Amino acid sequence: MKYVLFYAPAEDVMEKAPLHFPAHQSRIGQFHDRGDLLMVGTFGDPVNQGSMAIFPTREAAEDFVAGDPFVLEGVVRSYEIREWDEVLS
Q: 86: burial class by Cβ within 10 Å (0-12, 13-18, 19+)?
C-alpha cells in the first residue's frame, strides 16, 4: 500500500508559489532523502490540475503536509490523501 497526496492549487498560486517554492523544495528533498517521499510532480496544467506525491506511509504524507510551506502559506487551497494499492512497479 502507498499513499497519494493530491494538492489543489489556490487561485493565486502563480503569485504565491515562487515565494514559497525554495522552502517547499527543501522539504521535498528532506523527505525524499530519508525515504519518506517516493515521487512528486505536477500535472500537465499545474495551475488548474495541481500536483501529487506518493509516500510509503500515511504518517509520512500527513507529516509532510503538516509542515509544508505550500499548505501553511495558502499556495494550495486543499489537499487529499488517498490509499493506493500499487499493482505493478
A: exposed
Sequence spans of domains, the chain: 2-84
- Specify the pTM: 0.94
Cell numbers describing residue 79: 489537499
Q: Which residues of the chain have pLDDT under 50?
A: none
Strands (E), 1-89: 2-9, 39-42, 51-55, 76-84
Range 2-84 classified under CATH 3.30.70.1060: yes
Q: Of how many residues is the chain composed?
A: 89
Burial call 40-66: b when 16+ CB within 10 Å, e when fewer: beeeeeeeeebbbbbbeeeebbeebbe
